[in-house]
Amino acid sequence: MSLQSVREFFATHAPDIAIIELQTSTATVALAAEAHGVEPGQIAKTLAFRVAEREILVVARGDARMDNRKLKETFGGKAKMLDAETVQALTGHPVGGVCPFGLATALPVYCDRSLLAYAEVLPAAGAIHSAVRICPQRLATLVAAEWVDLCQLPEPA
């Protein structure tokens, strides 16, 4: 169902974007980066939070960490990550395949500015072995996301 809802989303909103399905799991940033031959930062992870009484999705680069202070300042309250069962119920996607496309429930989506470091990012596509290659600006446009600054970037090596 989850991969199917993402297929339907792209068929309607962006038929030029192909869903990439692999035989190997891409459920973590490290696995996805290796499988797609990209840096971990190019993997666009989608995280689900509850702030006060509302649920939100945040899409950020794979190697960035959420900054709790920035989350609180941006959304006006303490953000709590949702558990896997709640995430699947709200999005229709399993953890490891969560993305802002083809959602079971309409949720506000926020894209972290950290994604803009890349011309192309790879968010999951509703399953632990699927993804799409997409420009960050187009991703945000397709899901009506608001751009925010919520992340701490990794220290340069």
Give a concise summary.
This protein is α/β, with parallel strands linked by helices and 157 residues long. The chain has helices at residues 2-13, 29-36, 68-75, 84-91, 136-142; strands at residues 19-21, 43-51, 54-61, 65-66, 79-81, 109-112, 122-123, 130-132, 146-148, 151-152.
Biggest sheet, open or closed, and with what strands and sense? 6 strands, mixed
* Secondary structure: number of strands: 10
Low-confidence stretches: none
The H-level CATH homologous superfamily, spelled out, is YbaK/aminoacyl-tRNA synthetase-associated domain
Q: Based on the structure given, which CATH architecture is correct?
A: Alpha-Beta Complex
The level 1 CATH classification is Alpha Beta
Overall number of structural domains: 1
Shape, please?
globular
What's the SSE pattern?
Answer: HEHEEEHEHEEEHEE
Strand content: 15-25%
Structural class, from helix and strand content? alpha/beta
Number of helices: 5
Radius of gyration: 14 Å
Mean pLDDT across all amino acids: 94
- Euclidean distance between termini CA atoms: 41 Å
In the CATH hierarchy, the third-tier topology is known as YbaK protein
Measured as a percent range, the helix fraction is 25-40%
